């Protein structure tokens, strides 16, 4: 058959924009291109090793698994070649020529923001590691032959300026070579010494030999097989970056070597920051699965439950057969045991942070809290542990009164050091939040329920009139500002035999505020006024009652016994869930001047302005809840009220 001629292809629009930036920018850390290319070669070798050990036929079966780098200082050239899986024609057009991550546009925006000087480390993060070579090269040539013996060999060439060319070649060995001439300003990467030094720094632990101009450079092999004490922090950080493409150090890690009932080794890392696009479920992380050093699968979902899939790393177990299909791993009892141990160890690490490293916990909780908390609704065997790890803003922790109360109550000797630290201005990273345990420990004996209020954002929550009574009485209320809280907390039901109760509910177990009884509307006058409010609010409210909780506001809306929290209802609506609006209970404050004045007006027979203002008060409460549909009418009525009030 005649050889196919050269074909030219265009990069997709996003890729073009991205390449344009990569090609035309200046970099800090351009050397990361080497880590990216070695990482691709190592992945490719993993894939072919898996094929071989599972008995699949491969091209050139006798080839040693190797990564060979050849540099020439005089010619200023760099080439990296591996004996890995290689690429088919489709791989070259679909994978190499396409942006994998849908966060790319965000990446491009970030790059543009940074003007001319970019951090080369950022490129790999977006699943386009190969293209980082354009930081140092003007034109790249890839020659490749896939391990499947029926595939042909291909040559791919591009200068990153919008198009690439592919033609068939004569290569017989399976694997891939990537080669280029270095830009003048990056000719240092043609020096074998410089390359060796970089490999020792970034890729020493790669489990395949790396040869530089024929000399083997890396020495260590799989890091997770080493004794914990023989692995340095630096190596762990580099390993993490190698497998995760993150450019920051990890927040923390676990190095596990389990023996006995179940045997496996694992290196599990928690990133400091989520990757772009992370929170769309299909982009969650997971661990790589190895079987006795042989890579089996990337992102093995069955190793971690969804709520822990912020973790990255590897698990290597001899107890799993190599050629297990996805279905088998899913139902395998070995897998389930590994997963149980991993979950328990990860939770143990988070518990340790809470106790001893609150800064780490805070970083983690701010970044991955929403995902993590969802575990309460899915992992029932660890539910109690997860509930202990929950932390919330609260009326007391936010304004610091909880600390004061604890100090007044007399502190233990051990706590003095901590106080001294705080007084130096170094507040604990978690001091504006509270766990359910601390909440219940500091609540007075007379308090029977744990109170919370949920809402869209903390600032609005803090101003909610429903908090007035609790503030005045010094009762702590948890403020649930994270949307996930609204789905998690009501399901907890009780903690330490104390029911968790939204203060939006009309049936709270609170006493009337008798401390500073002002004049208040009562008896028939109150009955009459309530009737007017009922007429005005109509069917929209379930009931109108005299409030026991309001201090400074004349009215508020609460939720009936069976009703849903207004915040949850709003979110359900946003998610297009069909829920009819639950009817509210309108509470009026009989001792508030406005209510007293209205009652007086009503008693003197002027019921018309009373109706107008009652309606206005009701709509004002709806406005506060974000439930007012017709602001136009509201403002018109407000003008009428102002007209009345401003009459001489
Ligand atoms: N040496 C190689 N051998 C075989 N396939 C390769 C090689 N280098 C790149 N590829 C293919 O090209 C694809 C794109 O590589 P690129 O480095 O841009 O991103 P990636 O490796 O998929 O993502 P990440 O950088 O996040 O690991 C890879 O997924 C792989 O299919």
Automatic annotation (TrEMBL):
Region feature Disordered, mapped onto this chain: 401-432
Gene Ontology molecular function terms on file: ATP binding; ATP hydrolysis activity; ATP-dependent protein folding chaperone; unfolded protein binding
Segments of this protein annotated with the region C: 571-648
Residue numbers binding ATP: 36, 40, 82, 87, 102-103, 125-130, 176, 326
Localisation per UniProt entry: Cytoplasm
Basic and acidic residues composition bias: residue spans: 404-429
A cellular component term, taken from the record's GO annotations: cytoplasm
Protein origin, superkingdom: Bacteria
Main localization, broad class: cytoplasm
Sorted UniProt keywords: ATP-binding, Chaperone, Cytoplasm, Nucleotide-binding, Stress response
Presence of the UniProt keyword Nucleotide-binding in the record: yes
Subunit annotation: Homodimer.
Described purpose of this protein according to its UniProt entry: Molecular chaperone. Has ATPase activity.
HAMAP family in UniProt: HSP90
Stated name of the protein: Chaperone protein HtpG
């Amino acid at each position: 058959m005649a050889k196919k001629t050269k074909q030219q292809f265009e990069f997709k629009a996003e890729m073009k924009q991205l390449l344009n930036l990569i090609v035309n920018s200046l970099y800090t850390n351009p050397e990361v291109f080497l880590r990216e290319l070695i990482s691709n070669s190592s992945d490719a070798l993993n894939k072919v090793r898996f094929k071989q050990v599972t008995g699949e036929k491969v091209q050139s079966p006798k080839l040693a698994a190797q990564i060979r780098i050849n540099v020439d200082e005089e010619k200023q050239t760099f080439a990296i070649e591996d004996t890995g899986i290689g690429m088919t024609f489709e791989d070259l057009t679909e994978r190499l020529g396409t942006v994998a991550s849908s966060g790319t546009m965000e990446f491009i925006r970030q790059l543009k923001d940074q003007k001319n000087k970019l951090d080369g480390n950022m490129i790999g993060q977006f699943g386009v590691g190969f293209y980082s070579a354009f930081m140092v090269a003007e034109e790249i040539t890839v020659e490749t032959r896939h391990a499947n013996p029926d595939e042909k060999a291909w040559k791919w060439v591009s200068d990153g300026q919008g198009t690439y060319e592919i033609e068939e070649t004569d290569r017989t060995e399976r694997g891939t070579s990537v080669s280029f001439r270095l830009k003048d300003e990056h000719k240092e990467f043609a020096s074998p010494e410089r390359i060796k030094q970089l490999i020792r720094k970034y890729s020493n632990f790669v489990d395949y030999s790396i040869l530089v101009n024929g000399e083997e450079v890396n020495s260590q092999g799989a890091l997770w097989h080493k004794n914990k004490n023989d692995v340095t922090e630096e190596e762990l950080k580099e390993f993490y970056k190698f497998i995760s493409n993150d450019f920051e150090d990890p927040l923390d890690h676990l190095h596990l070597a389990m023996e006995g009932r179940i045997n496996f080794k694992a290196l599990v890392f928690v990133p400091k920051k989520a990757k772009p696009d992370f929170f769309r479920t299909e982009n969650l992380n997971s661990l790589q699965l190895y079987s006795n050093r042989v890579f089996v699968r990337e992102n093995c979902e069955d190793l971690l439950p969804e709520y822990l899939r912020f973790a990255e790393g590897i698990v290597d177990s001899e107890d799993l057969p190599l050629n297990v299909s996805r279905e088998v791993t899913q139902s395998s009892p070995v897998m389930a045991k590994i997963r149980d141990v991993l979950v328990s160890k990860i939770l143990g690490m988070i518990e340790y942070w809470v106790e001893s490293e609150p800064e780490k916990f805070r970083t983690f909780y701010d970044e991955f809290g929403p995902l993590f908390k969802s575990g309460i609704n899915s992992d029932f065997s660890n539910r109690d542990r997860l509930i202990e790890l929950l932390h919330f803003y609260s009326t007391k922790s936010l304004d610091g009164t909880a600390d004061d109360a604890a100090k007044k109550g007399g502190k233990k000797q051990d706590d003095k050091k901590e106080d001294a630290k705080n007084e130096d201005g170094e507040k604990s990273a978690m001091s504006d939040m509270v766990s359910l345990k601390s909440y219940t420990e500091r609540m007075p004996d007379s308090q029977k329920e744990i109170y919370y209020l949920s809402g869209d954002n903390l600032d609005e929550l803090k101003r909610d009139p429903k908090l007035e009574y609790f503030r005045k009485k010094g009762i702590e209320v948890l403020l649930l500002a994270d949307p996930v809280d609204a789905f998690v907390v009501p399901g907890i039901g009780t903690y330490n035999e104390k029911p968790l109760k939204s203060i939006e509910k009309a049936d709270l177990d609170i006493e009337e505020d008798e401390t500073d009884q002002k004049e208040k509307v009562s008896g028939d006058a109150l009955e009459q006024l309530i009737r007017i409010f009922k007429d005005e609010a109509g069917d929209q409210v379930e009931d109108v009652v005299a409030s026991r909780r309001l201090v400074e506001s004349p009215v508020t809306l609460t939720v009936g016994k069976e009703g849903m929290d207004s915040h949850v209802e709003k979110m359900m609506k946003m998610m297009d869930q069909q829920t009819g609006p639950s009817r509210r209970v309108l509470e009026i404050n009989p001792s508030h001047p406005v209510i007293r004045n209205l009652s007086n007006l009503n008693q003197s027979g002027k019921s018309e302005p009373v109706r107008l203002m009652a309606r206005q008060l009701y709509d004002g409460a709806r406005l506060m809840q974000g439930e007012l549909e017709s602001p136009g009418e509201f403002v018109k009525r407000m003008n009428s009220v102002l007209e009345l009030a401003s009459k001489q």
